[in-house]
Each structure stands twice: as structure tokens, then as C-alpha cells.
Amino acid sequence: MSPSAPALPLAPALPGWTHLSSGKVRDVYTPAPGSAWSGQDVLLVVASDRISAYDHVLDTPIPDKGKVLTALSAWWFDQLDDVVANHLVSLEVPVQVAGRAMVCRRLRMYPVECVARGYLTGSGLVEYRQNGTVCGQALPEGLTEASRLPEPLFTPAAKAELGEHDENITYERVVEMVGAPAAQALREVTLALYARAAGIAAERGIILADTKFELGVGADGSLVLGDEVLTPDSSRFWPADQWSPGRVAPSFDKQYVRDWLTSPAARWDRDGDQPPPALPEDVVARTRARYLEAYERLTGSPLDL
């Protein structure tokens, strides 16, 4: 692991499960010997309330964030299961992590972040301004922040170590990494998932600007959708009535956190060696409210907490 990888809080001990690994947000467990799931090829994936920004895991959690990520992913899996199978097996989990965990099929994950973009922003906009391309794909002249692309693009990234940036790569690089048949399947499924999700979001007055999917292979060799899906952590959701090309659109995610960290109030040097400071209560409250609003607007119901 990279020396710059962040130190993470200890994962909780859970009856029937053995801690395997932790990422920026999730803790992963395998079935303990003699447990109800023992001998089955599954994992318990727990979404914590941790939040990351600028490649740092912050010390200040966002209450109920893990429940939003879990519930929204489960809802989206149901909306998309006719596009591609998913890894969700059960939401019956230990009471200590009820509402924030799911039992999932163990997959052999592809080392590719399967990103779909329908609008130009973020790292895609940076590359476009430099080269007129996104992941090596040429785009028309005259596009700007939040411009709608002529058609959605598959813009993959290579997965990075914890604490480092994913690296945008070309489709040709994906072919080199996983082979032509798998690369084609990843591209086709990613764009099909994006099209379905963007249509659902549009019906609810939300633009899905971009999103990332993680895909793997199940025991039978079939393609399976894993990890989280179409959450505020993995996607840019914009209110359609506040979108205008040429300016940054407000989003249903951790933007309050990013904005505060880069403001004079934080007194933090993003390029320095010090970790980010603790978040103020108002930033925590507004960020939590934004996640909950995303869930309610997309699903049509408030999250049962």
C-alpha cells in the first residue's frame, strides 16, 4: 500500500464475520467458521459514515451517510437488474450494522473504474481544456463547464491505491489490461447502465452528469455489477432546474465539504503535509441533508432511519 494511504478507524467486531479489509468508506468481512454464512462465497460489505475529500479520509463522520449509500445502492440494483446482474445477496445483517450493510457475492473485480459521462466537468473538463479530448476521445470545440456531451462516453480509469487518485485511461489501455472481449463488455454495460439511470433520474428532475461502476466476474463467468452504485459518492447528480452550461452546477454530494476545506475558514493547505481539520457542525449538517435529499428525490420516499 502507498505510504500516503490514510489511517482508518478500526472496523467493528461483528458476530459471525471476520474483518478482511477496509477502504475509504467501506469495511469488508468474510464469514467466520461455523457461522450461518460459513462455506458460502460471500462477503459482508459495511458502509461507514466516513467521508473522504481530496484523497483524505476525514476525522469527522457524516451521520447516516452509510445508511444512505446502502439503501440507495439496493434501490438502484433493483432498477437495473434487467441490464446486468448484481452482487447483492441479502440485507439481513448483524444488528450492529443494520441498514448500512449488505451480504454480497464475492467477485473477481476488473481493475478498471467504469466511468460514464454525459456532461463535461471534473477531470474530463481538465483534459478537454488541455487536449480537446476525454480519455483520448476527441470532442467538438467550444464545450465548457457542465456542457452536455454529444453522446454519453465511456471514460475509464485505472484503480489507484488507497489515498491516491484514480488515473483516467484510454479504451485501448483497457483492452491491454483485460482483453478486447472483456473491454467491449465493460463499455457496453457501463453505457447501458448510464442510459437507464439517467432516464430514471431525469424523470425526477435530476441530471446524472457522470457516474462510476465497478464490474466483476461471478463464479459462472458472467459479468456482475458490484460495490456501490449511483450514490452521491460515486456520481454527480445535479438539480435539472439549476443546470446551466458555463457554470458549476450544485450537486447532491460532498460539495459542502470540499468548499469548506478550500475556504479560508478551514486554514488548510490542500497541497501541504497536514491532514484536513475537523468539519464544523453546520457543514456536517448540510452535507447529511444533501445525501438524504438525494435519496428521497431519486426514490420518491424519505429514508427510514
UniProtKB/TrEMBL annotation:
GO annotation, biological process: 'de novo' IMP biosynthetic process
Pathway(s): Purine metabolism; IMP biosynthesis via de novo pathway; 5-amino-1-(5-phospho-D-ribosyl)imidazole-4-carboxamide from 5-amino-1-(5-phospho-D-ribosyl)imidazole-4-carboxylate: step 1/2
Residues that span the membrane, as ranges: none
Reaction equations catalysed: 5-amino-1-(5-phospho-D-ribosyl)imidazole-4-carboxylate + L-aspartate + ATP = (2S)-2-[5-amino-1-(5-phospho-beta-D-ribosyl)imidazole-4-carboxamido]succinate + ADP + phosphate + 2 H(+)
Pfam families associated with the record: SAICAR_synt
Top-level taxon: Bacteria
Positions of the SAICAR synthetase/ADE2 N-terminal domain: 20-272
Entry's family note: Belongs to the SAICAR synthetase family.
Gene Ontology CC annotation, any one: cytoplasm
Full protein name: Phosphoribosylaminoimidazole-succinocarboxamide synthase
Alphabetical UniProt keywords: ATP-binding, Ligase, Nucleotide-binding, Purine biosynthesis
Gene that specifies this protein: purC
GO molecular function, one term: phosphoribosylaminoimidazolesuccinocarboxamide synthase activity
HAMAP family tied to this protein: SAICAR_synth
Signal peptide bounds: none
Taxonomy of the source species: Bacteria, Bacillati, Actinomycetota, Actinomycetes, Actinomycetales
Catalytic activity, EC: 6.3.2.6
